Amino acid sequence: MSSAPVPEATKHSSSHDREIVDAKVIVTCPGRNFVTLKIVTRSGVIGLGDATLNGRELAVASYLQDHVVPNLIGRDAGRIEDMWQFFYRGAYWRRGPVTMTAIAAVDVALWDILGKMAGLPIYQLLGGRSREGALVYGHANGRDISETSDVVGQFKEQGFLAIRAQCGVPGVKKAYGISTAGKPYEPAESELPAETVWSTPRYLEIVPQLFERLRADHGPEVELLHDVHHRLTPIEAARLARSVEPYRLFWLEDATPAENQKSFELIRQHSVTPLAVGEVFNSIWDCKHLIENQLIDYIRTTIVHGGGITHLRRLADFAALHQVRTGFHGATDLSPVCMGAALHFDTWVPNFGIQEYMFHSDETNEVFPHDYEFRAGRLHCGESAGHGVTIDEKLAARYPYSPKQLPIARLEDGAMWDW
Ligand code: CS2
Ligand code: MG
Predict the structure, then answer these.
(1) Record's SUPFAM superfamilies (predicted)?
(2) Mutation pick for ligand 1 pocket among 50, 136, 229 (CB with most ligand atoms within 8 Å)
(3) Domain limits at 239?
(4) 378 has which bridge partners?
(5) What residue's CA is closest to ligand 1, atom 9?
(6) Is residue 145 scored above 70 in pLDDT?
(7) Which of 75, 87, 106, 168 is a Cys-bridge partner for 143, taking CB atoms 3.0 to 4.6 Å apart?
(8) How far is the CA of 88 from the centre of ligand 1 (A)?
């Protein structure tokens, strides 16, 4: 009697089939540096995880190569939770951006493998679709208010429903977020940190003027966002949050450095402008006080720096208890592998807010083919098994690592400040 064909999924039903037989770290620089972890099982299933930490790529690559890969070989790729616990508790030196980015890369690669073994997209493994597509926001910036407003108009024409706006600050040579004319914004431009000078008074002056003009030029509908990028003190952040209230921002991001989570109480006392924070966080402990005291409205911590899907699922559920929504970081220094995984998470998570979406370069998209796509202001993950992103290793090898670090900022008197 002919035996029924073995369904794909059961081919991986034994731990022998799921045994990890190879793992490699791929560093490539198609326009900017990316680090990717590739894990292979005995049954030939490949999983990818993003391990990119802008300006510290080689730190994560060596953490993976020296301390993670030797521990992966021989383990069961299906034991995702146990692997997370092993690499988190087993590291002894817990948390931090390098450790949690390395753990995230393993975690996402294992979820990718699980999806491929089960023949299901990751959003289905998490519990299924909660929405059709993830609302995204694009990055508009300009050297002055008029140029910024023109670029916001261009993003509206491209179909964006939400747009972040950053404009130059008079007298500040290279303010965060302002690209050199016509080129996409890429802050890590030099081997050693470029030094920029910062002026808070002029910034506090121009931002309300920017949003007054944007509302006048583009009306009340479009969602407008702004990234303070950690550059204000709590009381200055409170002043800014209150001064932009008439222009109904979707959020004001990283209004003040958040190591002292309590400092957000001061902003909250003075303004109802929604607050977002967390792209530099790497665990639930960085934001527990902010969330449980309703001091923020959106949590930005994303999959690549926050310990992967396994940890972010816990963080998102905790945030949901306090009606805080997700707003994943999605800059160009997070690879398409992270974007792919994030979109599956965005498609499932009930307390979704918005997804940041900076366009990757054509070179990057050629190295990382993917099945997500932008339609009518939303990004839609694909239906392929796993996260739907692959890597062209031959092409990746043509782009050697290029040492780059993020800028730093100093005040006009020369004192170090936050960039
Ligand atoms: C920014 C980032 O996208 C954002 O919100 O804060 O561009 C950030 O500056 C970079 O990811 C740093 O590498
Ligand atoms: Mg930011």
Answers:
(1) Enolase C-terminal domain-like, Enolase N-terminal domain-like
(2) 229
(3) 125-385
(4) 135, 375
(5) 187
(6) yes
(7) 168
(8) 25
